[in-house]
Amino acid sequence: MSTKTDKIDRLGELTAAKQDEHGVSLWTEAFRRVRRNPTALVGIAILVIFVLVAIIGPWVAPYSPTDFIGKGEVRSGQGIIPGPSAEHWLGYDHQGRDELSRLLVGARQTLLVGIISTLIGLTIGALVGGIAGAAAGLGGRVGRAVDSVLMRIVDMLLALPSLLLAVSIAALLGASLTTVMIAVGVVSVPIFARLLRGAMVAQANSDYVLAATSLGVKRTKIAIGHILPNSLAPVIVQATLTLATAIIEAAALSFLGLGNPDSATPEWGLMLAEAQRFLDIRPGLAIYPALGIIITALGFTLLGEAMREALDPKLRK
Amino acid sequence: MIRFIVRRLLQLIPTLFGLSILLFIWLRRLPGGPETAILGERGTPELRAQIRKNLGLDEPLLIQYGRFMKRMLKLDLGTSISTKREVMTEFLERFPGTVELTITAMIIAIGVGIPLGYLAARRRGSFLDSASVGGSLIGICVPVFFLAYVLKAIFSENLQLFPSSGRQDPTLGATRITNFFVLDGLMTREWDAALDALWHLILPGIALASIPLAIIVRITRASVLEVLSEDYVRTAQSKGLNERTIRGRHILRNAMLPIVTVIGLLTGGLLSGAVLTETVFAFSGIGAFLYEAISNRDYPVLMGFIMIIAVFYVLVNLLVDVSYSLIDPRVRVR
């Protein structure tokens, strides 16, 4: 081990770099830029509010989201769903439950759907993409074969329009919220896999990899310790953006009847999907959860875009 | 060029082969298996056993797969459970509707998106720029089916400007030739029928166009901005070329490559949106039929449609790659 450190020290001498000289890391720099970007701040503000509602929602909700308190007043068959009143600020839903409470409590499930499906996609995608990328960048002939097999499988997933892929998975697993999360997650697997692989292959050609190789660092160590951390930026940006699309896609799956068949636990996508039937009577029932979804998705998108800009080395000063 | 296309076509074979295995496994793993898919929930144990025997489900998997592939290659996709008609017939009857809708959406998205993105880039920082960037960010975040409902509620139910459902007014008694209603109207010179079909396409077309439009605006803007900072644009300007030549030959042509990539990807992806939009507007294309198939658990239809759509999707991507080499001669070398 010590010989390697010696070598690195000697390299330092050769390049005549000062002992204590070091630049700001990409992440520090990116964080500073995100902090100065007004759109990013708007995105962060939206997300902070959203997460806050998701956490404290159940405690501040004025009524239980599952109680059919207004059952007697609601006749959805005859087009009667009472609207906002002093007691029920946003009125009842189609089964006589307090709409505001359902929105407040539903934020948590919605956040969960976004996070879990993104995590599913990110984990599998990064694993496949990471192995393929490492194999392609460093592995010679065997590596290229591993890479091309993995990527062909990813291509196959990409050969299906996302919603149809999700529908196929949902048909397999039956309609439930878990199904929705898995389906939405799997749909994003190829995107993550391709991104990480692409970034790693690009990094494999850089000078520091050459330097590490010539210092005799093991290939697996180069892949995990050097190439991987330098390839993560686009993946993290994509994960932020995927959080937005995951929530929207989950709503679409609910609309297609593949979501949770039991609407007791409120979730915005499901609420929006269910409210479509009562659009003529009470458009608000669709508009509130829709606004929730749009604003939240916007928050993630704004933050993701700002991070993309901040992490782009081309824009670094 | 031809070698390039042939090579790409050959590369499709392993993809489609893998896809067929996936679909084969998928059909076998569905809750209840294929016999439930055919019988629905009401099959008795005897009937199930009979069907398993008829379908050869008691034979080795490899033989089953061979038979499955043979049917696929003969384009025999089985019979729909709910309509009792051939899946292929159902598909061919509905596909033109979806193609019409997709083309409409793409015309809207490209026709508005590229000029808007270009102008936003040229007037960077202007109101138009911020409005189109902001609008496109919001556009991506609106669920398509919700937008479709909103458009329908405002423009057809309240303002009564557009029809709210279907592909054409059935009382017109339009002649059918190709099942492309607009084209049929033009071919038979039934102008009112063509116009009516076109009128039915506008609202679903806009709903379907929303996401591609948003993405095209942003990609065009980014791509044009990048090209604008190139030396050759400055050279072209300083040697006094007129604005039109610079725009067409120097900026747009070079900015086109990423735009075409995205357009290609989006065209395939439009099928996802079509399922939602067609359902809202009761527009009888493959999307609305897929929705019914999902709710009826009509597995033969689901599988057949998914297979055909996958092939179609892959072919669209091939077209994109080919158009690359037409736009950018450098790609041809590889």
TrEMBL record, chain A:
InterPro entries given in the database record: BP-dependent_transpt_permease, MetI-like, MetI-like_sf, OppC_N
SUPFAM superfamilies: MetI-like
One record GO biological process: transmembrane transport
Pfam families attached to this UniProt entry: BPD_transp_1, OppC_N
One annotated Gene Ontology cellular component of this protein: plasma membrane
Localization per record: Cell membrane
Residue ranges of domain ABC transmembrane type-1 in the record: 107-304
Keywords: Cell membrane, Membrane, Transmembrane, Transmembrane helix, Transport
Membrane topology: Multi-pass membrane protein
Keyword Nuclease (UniProt): no
Membrane in keyword set: yes
Membrane spanning stretches: 40-61, 111-137, 149-171, 177-196, 235-258, 286-307
Membership in a protein family: Belongs to the binding-protein-dependent transport system permease family.
Protein name per Swiss-Prot or TrEMBL: Peptide/nickel transport system permease protein
Organism listed in the record: Actinoplanes xinjiangensis
From TrEMBL, chain B:
Mode of membrane association: Multi-pass membrane protein
Subcellular location: Cell membrane
Keyword vocabulary terms for this entry: Cell membrane, Membrane, Transmembrane, Transmembrane helix, Transport
Residue spans crossing the bilayer: 9-27, 101-121, 133-155, 197-217, 257-290, 302-327
GO BP annotations, alphabetical order: transmembrane transport
A cellular component annotation (GO) from this entry: plasma membrane
Chief localization: membrane
Domain ABC transmembrane type-1: 95-324
Keyword Iron: no
Any Pfam family hit: BPD_transp_1
Family, as annotated: Belongs to the binding-protein-dependent transport system permease family.
Name of the protein: Peptide/nickel transport system permease protein
Organism: Actinoplanes xinjiangensis
